[in-house]
Specification:
CATH architecture: 3-Layer(aba) Sandwich
Number of domains: 1
Oligomer: single chain
Helix content: 25-40%
Length: 206
Amino acid sequence: MDTRLLSLANLIAIFGESETQALLDSFVCREDAIEKYCKVAAIKNENTNFTRTYVYLKPSFDTSTLQIKIQVVGLFSIQPGFVDGPAMPDTTLGKKSVKRVSNSKIQHFDKKRVLPAYNIRILGKAENATDISGKEMLDDCLTIFRLSKANIGGDTVLLKCKRILFQKFYSKYQFALLGPKSESDKKVNQQKDDDELYVGRHLDIV
């Protein structure tokens, strides 16, 4: 059976909050932070309109019970964000370079220099997921942003990730460290694998 993408809001509408929470509780990910978010924060953030979460469901037939079993095999969570800048030129983000990224705690900024952005808060798949790739999940996420752009504008995609994940995954899909290139390169080289970095890209880069 094919993997399906469904918004968490629709999932709750279909199954109810308790059963949806039970589905989320079965999610197992190599990244503890992603697994914890899925089990603890996803529904809470959905209900408070802090984020919108999309869930990948894999149905299978359980021969022992003769019933359809549904497993959460991946998810991503997105929200509006802001670019606190521009500060200095950046080769990837053009003149819309940034000094700092924030999605909920904006302090001490020049309002004339704040740019709207789309923030990927969480993106991850189950450790045993084989029917969906990280690239497919990222593409689905960017597609939702493009639909939003057609209605409300916005052009920059932001996220915070570990250095090693940036180097092995996001850098392959036109994400770059925020800030001037020379300082960004220096920062990457000085960071440890588990250190977190702010990265971004233009939405319409193919």
